[in-house]
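# step 3/5: fold
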Amino acid sequence: MDLEPLDLFRKVTAELTDPGAPFEIQNRDVPEKRLFAGTPPNFNTLMTRARSQFGSRDFLHYQGRRMSFEDIFVQSDSFAAALTTRYGIVAGDRVGIAMRNRPEWFVAYLAIARLGAIGVMLNSRGASEEIAWAADHVGSKLVIADDERAAGLADEMNCPALDEAGFAALIENADIADLPDMPDPDLNDPAIILFTSGTTGRPKGAIMMQRNLCTMAREMELRGELGLATNAQRYGMKVEDMRAMVPPMSMLLIFPMFHISGITIMCSALISGGLITLMRRWDPEEAVELIEVNQVGAISAPSMVYIDLLALPNAQKRLVSLRSTSIGGQATPEALAVRIRETIPGAGLVGSWGQTETTGAATGVPAEVFAVHPGTVGQPSSILDLRVVDADGKVLAPHEVGEFEARGPIVMKGYWNDEQATADAFRNGWLRTGDLGWYDEKGLFYIADRAKDMVISAGENIYCAEVERVLSMIEDQSEVALFGVADDRLGERAIAAVVMHDGAGRIPDPNGVCDHVRSHLADYKVPSEIRFDLGPLPRNAVGKVDKLALAHRYHERSET
C-alpha cells in the first residue's frame, strides 16, 4: 500500500539519518553539537572539496558570461594573497563586502574565508550611513565595495574602502607565492556576520559559526538525497537510476548575498556543483530568458517574483524547467500556491520557515507534503529542536499558539558586541525566534504571526523601530509610527504615520519625508506612503502604539 506523502517523507528521512546511514546524526542527544555524518569540519574544507570535484563545471552566469568553479577559485587565491600583503588580513579579522550580486562578491568572500577571516555581509541596498555604521560596529579592517557603494563610504568609515578598480588591480598584481597556508578553523570559530535589523533601531550582527555554515550545507545535501530517494521509492526505481535522470542543479539567485538565503544558495552550489545565475536587478522578462537559457530548476524568492513571472505571456511554457520553488521571506499566500501548481505543475512548491539566526530554513517539507497540508512550514530539521511556548516559557500543546523557540547546531552564536541583545535572544539555551505559531498532531508547524514589530515587503524585513528612529528626527513631530498594510504583490506596504505638534508651522512635504528616510536608510525601508491624519496614535494599556488599531484607522480614513 502506498504511503501518505508525509509518512513516506519521514520513512526516507529515517533511512538516511539513522545509525550507520550516510547522514547519521552524531551527538544526537547534544543539541548544540549535533552533526550529520560527513559534515565538513570547516568552510575551507567545503571549498577545497568543491574545487576538487567541480573545478571545470560552470559556477556563475552573469550578463552573458559563464565562469567555472576553477575560474573563481583562481581569482580568489590571487585576491587572498593580495589581502595578506596589502592589508595584512589574517584569521579572525573582519572584512566587509558591500556590493550587488556579481562575480566579484564570490571572489571576495571565498578569499576572505580562505584566510580564515570573518566575512561581514553588509547591506548593499543600505544608505552609506547604515553600511558604515555596521562596518565600524564589528571593527572591520577593510570593506570591499562596488563603485556605487565605495563612493559614498570613503569618508564615512574608520577603515579603507576598496573599489572596483582597486579590486581588479590587486588581483592582477598579486603574487600567488604570497598566499599563506590555508588555516584549519574550528567548528566553533566565527565564519560570517549577517546583519538583522532590530527593535532598538540599529542593526545587530548575527555571528554565524563554521558549524552553522557547514551543518547547513550538509543539510542541503540531505534534502537533495531525500528528494531522490523519495521519488525512487514512489516510482519503484533505484536511487542511482533516478540520480542519472536529474540534471545538475541550476539556480536563479534572487535574494542579495547579504541575506542568509543568498548564503544558502552559494553553499548549495558548492556541495552540488550547481550553476548560480546572477541578475543585476529584478526584471521579469530578463529573468524568464535566463531561466530558459540556463534551464533553471530552483528558485527561492518573495511572492512578487512569482506574481511577475506568472503574468508573462507563455509563462507555462517558458517556466517548464522549474522543479523546486519556495516563497522566501514571508508566509506562502494560498492563492499564489494554487497558481504556481496550476501554471507550472512540475515546479514543486515546498513549505519552509527560518530566519538569519537559524542559518536559513529550519523547517521544511517537500512539495508533495505541502500540497496535502497547505499552509504548513513543515517539520524541524533532523538536527534541530523546535518548540512552541507561552510568554513564560511553558511548552504548549498542539494547536495552542505561542512563540517558536529553537536550539541546535544551526542556531547562531549571538550578536557581535551586543551582550544585552544576545541575552534577550535566548532563554535557557533556546533561541527566542519572535515568530508565533503552532503545531498539529502530526508534528507539522504553522506560522500564525510575528512577535517582532516589523513589516515584510517584497521579501525584505523592515523593522519599524529603525524607520521610526529616523522619522523622529523630523522637526515639530510629536509622535511617529510605521506599520504594514496588506498588498497583493509585495505582501505588505510600509505606511508611516507622522503626527505634528499642535503649534507646528506647516505639514512637511511627504516627498521630503521620504527623501529624509532615504538619506539614512536603504531604499526599501522608505515608506510607501506618509500620513499626517492618523493622530493621536492609538495606544494599548502600557502606552505602546497599537499597530493593529492604527492599520484599521488607516483603512477607515482611506475609504472616506
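# step 4/5: annotate
The domain at 454-559 is CATH 3.30.300.30 (GMP Synthetase; Chain A, domain 3).
# step 5/5: archive (pending)
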